[in-house]
Design brief:
alpha+beta, Ribosomal Protein S5, domain 2, Butyryl-CoA Dehydrogenase, subunit A, domain 3, four-stranded mixed β-sheet, two-stranded antiparallel ribbon, 8 helices
Length: 288
């Protein structure tokens, strides 16, 4: 089952000391690149969070942000270091006596002074357990979103494979007609010259032209690549890089078909193939 590399998830949970919120954003990337933005109290647990994300996501640039809003507790919150406040007040009084034109101190500014408002320590272990469980929910949500998008991409790729197979079958069916037309055209040129031609030499020339125009090998490889793509779509493992390689191979066969083309219909078929392959390639860039 295909997974897209793009997705978004947001999960929140109330804990005994506040609200935790995980936001995860993922975009396509050559490999798995997970970046975390978490509160400093939980920074020592970043490696554990990283391992948890890597176990779920296989590829993509992933940004994980954890927000923590502490619950207000009148008994423990906004405790002020009165000793420090008194010291700051004395120093302000000294400055005011020397600089009488200085505006009075704003109490709010004093509260912002480092150490004035005492912060109660947070027990990180229970908080980590809650954050880890919530991260699991967010990862499941984004994985589901990526799987849903991957299913849509797989459906589109299957449809394009059917279109490519139809074009390949049509070109193969027309090849006897194309070769007959080339033989007739060669005979017309000889008739215009009004000269005797060795039938054996004519057959040799026609055989040489047919060999240059033969695209059976290219069509066989094209069909083989389509089988590989369908097998990859039916698997469970990440196949983004494999599909990208197969797109290169399909494009190579389409280019060869166009270079060997001897009529407008075959040339048009080669162009249609390249359009379909490019549509597939654009979608595959987003496949895990």
């Amino acid at each position: 089952m295909l997974h897209s590399m793009t997705g978004f998830a947001r999960e929140s949970a109330e804990t005994g000391i506040g609200t935790l919120t995980w936001e995860i954003r993922a975009v396509n990337h050559r490999y798995l690149d997970v970046q975390f933005k978490i509160p400093e109290d939980l920074r020592p647990k970043e490696q554990a969070f990283r391992q948890q994300a890597s176990a779920t996501l296989g590829r993509g640039k992933v940004e994980c942000a954890l927000y923590f809003r502490r619950a207000m507790n009148s008994d423990s919150e906004l405790q002020i270091d009165t000793t420090l406040v008194e010291l700051i007040g004395h120093r302000i009084s000294e400055l005011t006596s020397k600089l009488p034109n200085v505006a009075a101190a704003n109490p709010i500014e004093i509260l912002r002074w480092p150490g004035v408002v005492l912060q109660t320590e947070v027990d990180t272990e229970p908080l980590f357990d809650d954050a880890s469980a919530l991260l699991g929910q967010a990862l499941s949500a984004i994985d589901g979103m990526r799987a849903s998008e991957g299913a849509r991409i797989a459906e589109m790729l299957q449809s394009r494979c059917e279109d490519i197979a139809a074009i390949s079958a049509a070109v193969r069916k027309r090849m006897p007609e194309v070769l007959a037309a080339a033989r007739s055209k060669q005979q017309e040129r000889i008739d215009k010259l009004d000269v005797e031609v060795d039938p054996g030499r004519l057959e040799a020339e026609v055989a040489l032209i047919a060999q240059k125009m033969d695209v059976d090998e290219e069509l066989d490889r094209l069909d083989s690549h389509l089988v590989e793509i369908r097998d990859a779509l039916a698997g469970d493992k990440p196949v983004g890089r494999r599909l990208d390689f197969l797109m290169q191979e399909l494009n190579r066969e389409a280019n060869t078909l166009g270079s060997k083309s001897a009529d407008t219909e075959t040339s048009r078929a080669a162009v249609d193939l390249k359009v379909l392959i490019e549509q597939m390639r654009e979608q595959i860039q987003n496949v895990e």
